[in-house]
Each structure stands twice: as C-alpha cells, then as structure tokens.
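Record type: monomer structure entry
Structure origin: computed from sequence
Chain ID: A
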Amino acid sequence: MTEMSGPRGVQDPSDLLERIAALQQEVGQLRRALAAHAIVDQAIGVLRVVYGLGSEEAWDVLQQVSQHTNTKLRGVAAHVLRWSGRGDLPEEIAAELTAAVSAAQEDPCAAQAASGV
C-alpha cells in the first residue's frame, strides 16, 4: 500500500493506534466522571430528604464537608450514601456534616458564603 499525501491520504498505522488509545482513555475518564456525578446527585437527594435542604444548600454542604475534611467531593458523597443505608459515618465527616447542615438550616445565604459560592 502506498501512502498518499494530503487530506485524503492514508494515515500511518501507528498514528491510528495512538489515536485509538487516546480515545479509549478519554472514554474511561468520561465514564468515571459520569459515575461520580451520579453519586454526588444521589447524596444531594439524601441531604434534601433527611434535612429538608434545597438542592443548592445540599451541594454547598457537600462542598464544605469536602473542603474541611480534605476529602474528595465524590468520597464525601459516597460516605453520605453509605450512611443513608447503614447509619454510620466516619467521625470527621459526621462532625463536619452536622456543622455544615446546621449552618445551612440557620442561614442558607451564610452557608453559601462560607463555601465560597
């Protein structure tokens, strides 16, 4: 097979393999992001039902707990989901969650300001 130059030319197989590998990596990253988003959305729902928070307030609570415990947001959300099923939270997460929810329930505007939103 001869290679042609220009936009309709045949590409080098190694270039195609690199492109396929890059696309497979991107697909994997997108799948992980989608899964993380679903976990966070479910945790927001738990906080809304359990504490009567609005969507933004619940989001702010998750952000505050994440920042104050130096835990990824997805990790905090996963803890909240496990807590809703089993009733236990790591001590540090529980303390920060209680404080953030109390602040949000007392003054939603203050909770947003504290989270930097």
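Annotation 1: Residues 40 and 77 are 5 Å apart (CA to CA).
Annotation 2: The radius of gyration is 22 Å.
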